Amino acid sequence: MTSNKSPDWASKYRPLKFEEVILPKHLEDSLRAVSSKGGGMSLLFYGSPGCGKTTVAKLINPDNTYYINCTLNRSIDLIRDLERVCSTVNVYGERRLILFDEADFLSKDAQAGLRGFVEQFDASNDFIMTANYPDRLMGAIKSRFLPVNFDLINSEQTRARVMKRLKNISSLEGYSAVPEPQLRAIVGDCFPDIRQMLKRLQFELQSKGSNND
Q: Are residues 145 and 160 in the same domain?
């Protein structure tokens, strides 16, 4: 489950496999199918922060993904630089995934430039956008990406899955007796932001000063 040595649990336990991401079963199956077939379509992952949009996007084609942080690279210059990347072909003929993370920060000029760009280079590239606020994206852009809603359904079943994950992470960190009411409170207050749940869990447990058995 551990992805890196970061002291931040939300980063340290970022899922490395689809089965570690808390998603509705039908959505997990559909995304697995896209991944197993090597992509082939442009997708827009949207929903509340901390629901796993970026994590899942990176799992679609983990060995050949070009990542763009659109909060830092948001102007039309991004499109000009990207043309060089997308025009090169992998030596094995494999498809490349271009990930526009936080695409709702892209400028209007950049969005306009992407309209024809996506269709021009889709022969060997797939495109995924993530967005917390998809309404900021132009209609002409959204029509070229299949929207996929990542908002979790606030059901007892979903909350139980989240609590189980929090318990597992707590145990891995040496906190094996976390009271269930504490976990329920964290999930209830932070839902659906799983990243925020992990940060609060870490803060509350570490503030005790020592692990418990």
A: no
d(CA 2, CA 9): 9
Peptide bond into 192 cis (omega under 30): yes
Whether 13 is covered by a domain: the verdict is no
**If pLDDT is split at 50, 70 and 90, which confidence band does 213 have?**
very low
For 191-209, write each residue's pLDDT tens digit: 999 999 999 999 999 997 5
Same domain, 185 and 123: no
Which tens digit of pLDDT belongs to each residue from 51-74?
999 999 999 999 899 999 999 988
Residue 85: CB partners within 8 Å, gap ≥ 6? 66, 96, 98
Determine contact, residues 58/99, Cβ cutoff 8 Å.
Answer: yes
